[in-house]
Amino acid sequence: MAQVEASADVPVEPALAFAVSQTTGATRYRWDRFVREQHLLGADRPGKGVRTATRSRHGLAMVSEYVSYVPPSHVGMRMVRGPWFFAVFAGSWRFTPLPGGGTRAVWRYVFRCRPSWLAPVAERIGTALLGRDIRRRIAGFARGCADPEVLAVARRELETDAR
Hints:
Layout: E1 2-10, H1 14-21, H2 25-31, E2 35-41, E3 51-56, E4 61-70, E5 74-81, E6 86-97, E7 103-113, H3 119-144, H4 148-162
Antiparallel strand pairs: 1-7, 2-3, 3-4, 4-5, 5-6, 6-7
Helix pairs in contact: 1-4
């Protein structure tokens, strides 16, 4: 299986970084330029087993399912339905505290392409394209973790969750 990974250090604690990563709607689109449209399916809040419909800026659509949801440390998802050329697609986002404050976010995607006879070439191309996208996406996340409007929404979500 092919893999791409990117990381960023952000100046907020892990709980807030995690909350930023799970924002939705206009707040999400403010920092996540990869996503053109995204919404939860049959749920108001993300969580293990919840499905999400996403359309990327490339126009590709995917339904994914949370396979883990453990605030503030990590979240994992797997593709349930998506572009024909992915036999498998999954991702994880991890958030760990930095010694001097702040959080290191590490995002990883793994995938396998089809048809199998074309996979070696397709996965090299996919690694280059997805690698560029994940680096841009985590850079947007880092900007979101410094954006007062995004942080205000994420803080409200944390307060709601605490109640």
